[in-house]
Amino acid sequence: MRLVSWNINGIRAVQRKGLFDPFVASLSPDVICLQEVKAEQHESTHQVDGYEEYWHPAAKKGYSGTALLTKPSPLRVTTGLPATLVKKYDLALDAFGNPNDEGRTITAEYPDFFLVNVYTPNAKGDLGRLGLRHQHWDPAFLAYLKKLNKTKPVAVCGDLNVAHTPDDLANPKANEGKAGYTTEERSRFGELLDAGFVDSFRMFTPGSGHYTWWSNRSGARERNVGWRIDYFLVSADLAGRVTAAEIHPDLLGSDHCPVSLTLDL
After folding, report:
1. pLDDT value at residue 40
2. I need a surface site. Which of 63, 75, 230, 243 has the fewest CB within 10 A?
3. Is residue 46 predicted with pLDDT exceeding 80?
4. The Cα angle at residue 122 between residues 215 and 104, in degrees rounded to 5
5. Are 35 and 5 in contact (CB under 8 A)?
């Protein structure tokens, strides 16, 4: 079973460029998880043959949002985080809006595992949303994954908006303390690993130079000056079924590239 995740940074723009169908044809995924779709389902220009579609758009037009396209029919699909966790972790309105209205998670339950598609809030260039990330969103999201994992194994994918180690970005010293590479964000990602979730890409590929996001400025992608902020994490009891975890930098259309996970189920 091949799962693919891509922060598409506007699905309508990618479709207008004629780059969505080649992406699907190239990777032949069983399940596609998209982040930052910036659209509602009816605004997508075409349906992809053979896939059921589930969308969780943001309340704000043209902003954020996630979607899941799947060949195998899920047992159940839910959107958002549970109300109990939203209340417990006081995950509500901040200066930028309400993260619960931004279409940030879709969860699909399959017979053997849960799949969680997430677009984690960005801490912002001035770190204005770092408090939301560190004190509210990240703890609530981890609690959610732990809750699911009590029932069956979990795979979580998406744009987590953090580079965990110096190997996960081209210029770690220059970006120390900046959004996506703060101590707070990195430590929260570490808590995911401490809880037993495995960074699947690192099961196969060590070292630096492997990135999933590049700035649109200064030819960063061409020079491979990037960040690895898009992941597939799997719970420990699913890790033994992972046969491949890859980054696909040659697939264009967004400032992110797709990442994939192959499971032997």
Report:
1. 96
2. 75
3. no
4. 115
5. yes
pTM comes to 0.98
DSSP bridge pairs for 245: 261
Contact 79, 105 (CB under 8 A): yes
Show Cβ contacts of residue 173 under 8 Å, excluding neighbours closer than 6 positions.
none
**Tens of pLDDT, residues 75-86:** 999 999 999 999
Please tell me the total count of domains within the chain.
1
- CA nearest to 3, candidates 46, 45, 25, 32: 32
Using alpha carbons, select from 133, 150, 156 the residue that is nearest to residue 233.
Answer: 156
Q: Is 80 exceeded by the pLDDT of residue 31?
A: yes
The CA–CA distances, whole Å, from 159 to 50, 165, 206, 225 equal: 25, 16, 20, 18
Check: CB of residue 216 under 8 Å from CB of residue 161: no
CA distance from start to end of the chain? 7
Phi-psi label, residue 102: left if phi above 0, alpha if psi -120 to 50, beta otherwise: alpha
Burial 49-77 (b: 16+ CB within 10 A, else e): eebbebbbbbeeeebbbbbbbbeeebeeb
Q: Which residue has the tokens 């590929």?
A: 205
Residue range of the domain that includes 85: 2-263
Place of tokens 């690895």: 228
Question: Of 40, 76, 71, 45, which Cα lies nearest the Cα of 55?
Answer: 40
Domain CATH for 167: 3.60.10.10
Separation of alpha carbons 30 and 92, rounded Å: 34
Neighbours of 177 (CB within 10 A): 9
Within 13 A of 137's CA, how many CA atoms are on the CB side? Answer: 26
